[in-house]
Amino acid sequence: MKVTYNWLKDFVDIKITAPQLADKLTMAGLEVVSLQEKEGDFVFEIEITSNRPDWLSLVGIAREVAALTGRKLKVPQAKSAKYTAGSMQPLAIQVEDKKDCPLYTARIIKDVKVAPSPVWLKKRLELVGCRSVNNIVDITNYVLFELGEPLHAFDLAKLNPEGVIIRRAKNSEKLLTIDGENRQLNSNILVIADREKPIALAGVMGGKDTEVTTGTKDILLESAVFNPVIIRRARQALGIQSEASYRFERGVDLASVEKASLKAARSIQELAGGNQVGYQVKGVTKAQAKNIGLEISKVKKIQ
Amino acid sequence: MDIEAIYLEIEADIQNVNSREALELFRLKYLGRKGAVAELTSIIPTLSKEERAAFGQKVNSLKNKLSEVVGEKEKLLNVQPETKIKVSCDLGMPGIAQELGQLHPLTQVLDEICAIFNRMGFSVVEGPEIETEYNNFTGLNIPLEHPSREAFDTFYLKDYAKLLLRSHTSPVQVRAMKERKPPLAIVVPGRVYRPDAVDASHSFMFHQVEGFLVDENIRFSDLKGVLGVFAKAVFGKDIKMRFRPHFFPFTEPSAEVDISCIICKGQGCSVCGKKGWLEILGAGLIHPQVFKQVGIDPKKYTGFAFGMGVERIAMLKYGINDIRLFFENDLRFLKQF
Ligand SMILES: [Zn+2]
């Protein structure tokens, strides 16, 4: 995964140089495989081991940097979004099997202006290896990299307004994904569908027909958590690897779902305007806290 | 000059030609720039028109005859040495020595690694290259459908769903710990297989040495001590070593172990990617879950395990930059070890 020095500085005061930081990270188990100076910033490419999905975000790495350098982690609280009340019927969300999708949220934002992203946003995304598309798509990607929660924006006008269903695909169904491939689906693959047809491969890739384009006015912003095994199987069966599937396969924090949705909504209002008219939640919003026993005497015994 | 006389002379001369040197002299005498044929040819312009044609033909026949005689003699001389040696065999002469084979560089390095651990009390145990899925994965705390399996792409046997070509030597840990009781100190050399595209640093088949030690009160510092002895024995006394935290499903805590770059002594060069350090192996304390799987009480026993690629060690030790050289078996390469 790639992070940049300046982006990390949004969340933690760093008083050491980029090469010094690279060395500290490497010796803490976040192996920096390359460090490059680019456009006035430094890009760290870090190999993240499969046991640490919490490191698959800027904030996750910044948390580690804060601990390693004895500084405080500064994560701004997501401010609640501005609502225009009562202007729309809430969208129905139906989850066929909550084991496949423990949490699904949909936020509706109307009258956005889709346009190219500002330079700072384009630059940050490009430094971490993500192509700029338009302001809406870029914001969802930006939040993915920052918080580790993959988001997806649908063009609301292009789906059946009755609502969305998170369900297994039928063996006869097909979906044209945003990479232009026509995908043959089967019952092992989880999809987001409207009343008529699949509109996205859940947790892997969106559909072409409902993607946000320059003509889009109203959007449905999805923030959710999917079962890692389902995502892994779909990714293997279809041969698609995406930033989203990479994170869902390893595990995404339930608590980051609403934070990410809010953060994206605020950014969309700032960069593309629009009115929030609804936010729907289906599922559990918090993971159950676990007690983990640790015997200090045993820790000392293995040193 | 009498051509008939030359024919007679040729017949007499060729009888006495018994070596290549003699044949060359013969050729010069008759066919050389100042030889008989050249001399005859030089006469031609002085003859009358009527005589020229007949004489020219005679000279040509002579030339052909000479070429024929020289060719025949040449063939004869080419096969002659053998018959000559048979005739003049000297039984007192030393024989022609057969070239001796030698151990492959990988075998040499493998033996050296095992010998170092032998001296520290480890015994060598081997296991099969065709393994069960359980021993290769599940028994080592690598669950099915888990991202940690990504690191171990594997060849499965076509008609046997649960059998595979082992992707590491660690399954021998499972076998040995089930069969024996602690204390255990074992090293496992062997071939492993992964479906990697072959290039300068990857091969679908390579060698590993796995090692593990299980007893009461085994600590991380024991692991450091044992690996320190190993690294110094292979790479020299001045080598520095460092442990970087890492993740392996079968050890906790886990580490990757680096040595200071043997090329640049830690200054940074192209071999170590300007880092000054070279990764040589992975290691850690055996995960309690692995102990439970093999019926060893994790409350009573602790242990460490490590694994290394033999090709990697050999490449660093001898400064070899392409893994394929080990398997091409070009004698010009093998003879250097
Ligand atoms: Zn070096």
What would you note in describing this structure?
The complex is a heterodimer of chains A (303) and B (337). Chain A is an alpha+beta fold and 303 residues long. Chain A is built from nine helices and 14 strands. In chain A, the strands form four sheets. Chain A has a five-stranded mixed sheet. In chain A, β8 (174-176) and β9 form a beta hairpin. In chain A, α5 packs antiparallel against α8 (256-272) and α6 packs across α7 (243-250). The radius of gyration of chain A is 20 Å and the shape is globular. The relative contact order of chain A is 0.17. With 337 residues, chain B is of the alpha+beta class. In chain B, strands 1-4-5-9-8-7-6 form a seven-stranded mixed sheet, with helices on both faces. In chain B, strands 2-3 form a two-stranded antiparallel ribbon. In chain B, 41% of the residues lie in helices and 19% in strands. Chain B is rod-shaped, with a radius of gyration of 37 Å. In chain B, a hairpin with a 2-residue loop joins β6 and β7 (251-260). The complex binds zinc ion.
> What do the pLDDT scores of chain A average to?
92
Strand order of the largest sheet of chain B: 1-4-5-9-8-7-6
As an assembly, this protein is: heterodimer
The main pleated sheet of chain A reads as:
5 strands, mixed
* Secondary structural class of chain B: alpha+beta
What would CATH call the class of the largest domain in chain A? Answer: Alpha Beta
Number of structurally distinct domains of chain A: 2
Q: Give the overall shape of chain A, derived from the CA principal axes.
A: globular
CATH topology of the largest domain in chain A: Phenylalanyl-tRNA Synthetase, Chain B, domain 3
- What can be said about the biggest beta sheet of chain B? 7 strands, mixed
Distance between the termini of chain B: 69 Å
